[in-house]
Design a protein that fits this description.
The chain is mostly helical and 102 residues long. The chain contains six helices and two strands; from the N terminus they run H-H-H-E-H-H-H-E. It has a two-stranded antiparallel ribbon.
């Protein structure tokens, strides 16, 4: 399954472009790609696309490349941005995000 099976390619392009500099705001990004309007089932589909190692979790190493999960030309997140995103989604403090954290 591709990200564009769930989200609009145009919305993805706009959102990734908006955060091409080191200013990633995950709340605004998820809103811009249309994820906030999606059903819980669609959000889980996006989660599984981003869960590259199929562990059932998105770990810090995967989060660094989260924008590439939306489009191949997305940039890598900085360590600071990655840690902020992890802190926001890691509900139980285990260093990874489960499907319920999105």
């Amino acid at each position: 399954m591709a990200m564009t099976d769930v989200l609009s390619a145009e919305d993805i392009k706009k959102a990734v472009g908006a955060f091409s500099a080191e200013s990633f705001n995950y709340k605004k990004f998820f809103e811009m790609v249309g994820l906030k309007k999606k059903s819980p089932e669609d959000v889980k589909k996006v989660f599984h696309i981003l869960d590259k190692d199929r562990s059932g979790f998105i770990e810090e190493e995967e989060l660094k490349f989260v924008l590439k999960g939306f489009t191949p030309d997305g940039r890598d997140l900085s360590d600071k941005e990655t840690k902020a995103l992890l802190a926001a989604g890691d509900k139980d403090g285990d260093g990874k995000i489960g499907a319920d954290g999105m």
